[in-house]
Amino acid sequence: MLLFETMLDPRLLESRRDEIITSCKRRGVDVDLDAAIVAQQRVAEIQTELNGLNQRRNEHQANGKRKLEPAERDAHIAEGRRLKEDVAGLEKHLAAEREVLRALMLSIPNFLHPDLPEGGEEDSRELRRVGKPRQLEFQPLDHVALNVKLDLFDFEAGAKVAGQKWYYLKNEAVLLELALQRMAFDYVMEAGFAPFATPDVARREIVDGLAFSPRGVETQIYSIAGMDLDLIGTSEITLGGIHADALLDEADLPLRMAGISHCFRTEAGSAGRESKGLYRVHQFSKVEMFAIVRPEDSAAMHDELVAIEERILQALEIPYRVIDVAAGDLGAPAYRKFDIEGWMPMRGDGGGYGELTSASNCTDYQARRLKTRFRRAGAKKNELVHTLNGTAIAVPRTIVAILENHQRADGSVAIPAALQSYLGLESIGPR
């Protein structure tokens, strides 16, 4: 059973107080760090007291092995009973104080990379652009308008059966989804990632262990009523959960895994033109990369994940830009995150970039919660691993980018050469 822990080492709170406060301010997160420090001190004090009491109890039990007079035996038994009760009471007190500390720690996000740009979503730093948007000699259509001619997805049927923002893929779009998945797996397997088809659900402790919170009105997680299960928002959750409570050998690292799953997100609060159609939906298919590495290797692995994502988008002939996500736009687990935004001719006024993939270095934040550790060759002490994740293909948004970037004047869509062998088509429509 997973022993859920907090995301940062509570023993670091006091010594790294200023750094943690600065990190939280950069993220725009309010935390009561001093209350957490006091709670950690209480836990440490009670643990020390409990250790001393357990030592006394062990010594008392050892003394009981020698021959005692009847009166001494009665006194010894009474003292043993009292010590047992005291230990039980202190253990109960310790558990309660640990829960207080855990609740306070849940609000504290990971540390931040020192080079992150300040600010929120609009303040992310563009690192590079690759590919030039096509100069179209006709009036382009967005993917929703293209669908009138191509008949690739059906939101009306989705709303009738499941509600708004649910949909059916149809005709060539079904084959396109399968082709994108297969193509993505070829790229990630070539880079050494083992393929997994994961469950679409996970135990709540695993979901929380990967730090997919909060719950309540702000949650992006669908929970299954009457069960200790959530629908996953990404196979990062199910891949990371495999090694919860695991002690790995250094020789086993790095672990490279790639999972295919459906992903479910409530998209609470999402609205506007940029969320219409397939760009922001409640369910989608995705191939996700997940890596477990030694701490000193996580920065290089982060670059490797981004490089794989770029190779896939280049093969799909989608112009894109890579951005270094600003501190205020990061989720709690991420130490640093790079997004790749693909060019979409009908986004905003005159075209714009929209997120297609992301890659995050979560350092030991998730590993501490999941108790995923490793032991170096010849060492006696266990260490926490670092975990990273990156999107190989998020299907609906990639379909949007393909349709809008490769559309033709007659309403048909050209299929990128690298994808044709997977799809078996050179173009789609019009009907």
Q: What's the arrangement of strands in the largest beta sheet? A: 1-10-11-12-15-9-8-4
The whole-number mean of residue pLDDT values reads 90
- For the termini, the CA-CA separation is 55 Å
Give the oligomeric state: single chain
Q: How many beta-strand segments?
A: 17
Poorly predicted runs: 1-6
How can the largest sheet be summarized? 8 strands, mixed
Task: Specify Rg, calculated over alpha carbons.
Answer: 27 Å
Number of H/I helices = 12
List the helices and strands and how they pair.
Blueprint: H1 17-27, H2 33-63, H3 70-105, E1 125-130, H4 143-150, E2 153-154, H5 155-161, E3 168-169, H6 172-190, E4 194-197, E5 201-203, H7 204-209, E6 229-231, H8 235-241, E7 247-249, E8 255-264, E9 283-293, H9 298-315, E10 320-324, E11 336-344, E12 352-361, H10 365-370, E13 373-375, E14 382-384, E15 386-394, H11 395-405, E16 413-414, H12 417-423, E17 427-428
Parallel strand pairs: 4-8, 7-13
Antiparallel strand pairs: 1-10, 2-3, 5-6, 8-9, 9-15, 10-11, 11-12, 12-15, 13-14, 16-17
